[in-house]
Amino acid sequence: MSIPPAQTSERSTHRGNCHCGAVRFTFSISPPLPKYPTNTCNCSICSKNGYLLVYPFTKDFTLETGKEVLRKYMFGLKRSEHKFCGTCGCSCFIEIVEEGAPDIIAVNVRLLEDFDYDILKINKVDGKTFGPEYKV
Ligand SMILES: [Zn+2]
C-alpha cells in the first residue's frame, strides 16, 4: 500500500482529542474510515505508543487547541516529530519534517471521538525490518 492511498470520491471527517482534552484536532480523509487502511506497525515507536495511523493531507488537518501543551519526541534520523500531550501524555500525531516527504500528517486514530477498533480496516506494517535495530 502506498502512503497515502489513492483518494476516492468519498471522504469522512473526524474529531480527536487527547485524554485530558487539551489537544483537540479535526481532519478529513479519503477514502473514508473505515475503508481507509489503518496502519499498525511493529517498529519500536509504533509498538511503544500503540499507534494506529492514518495519513490525511496537512491541508485537511487542523489543530484546534493544544499547540502550547504539545511536546515533541524525535529519534534516529529525526525525520519526524512525534507530538504528544505534555499534560496527559497521549501520542497524538506525527509531523514529517523530512525534506521532500509527502505533505501528509500521521494521525493516531486511537484519539478519535468515534474510535472503534472493530470497524477499522487494519493494515499490518513490518516496520521493524525497515531501519536499524532498536536498542536502548
Ligand atoms: Zn492531554
Automatic annotation (TrEMBL):
Keywords: Metal-binding, Zinc. Residues 14-118 form the CENP-V/GFA domain. The keyword Zinc applies. It holds the Pfam family GFA. InterPro entries: CENP-V-like, CENP-V/GFA, Mss4-like_sf. GO terms for molecular function: carbon-sulfur lyase activity; metal ion binding. Belongs to the Gfa family. This is Glutathione-dependent formaldehyde-activating enzyme.
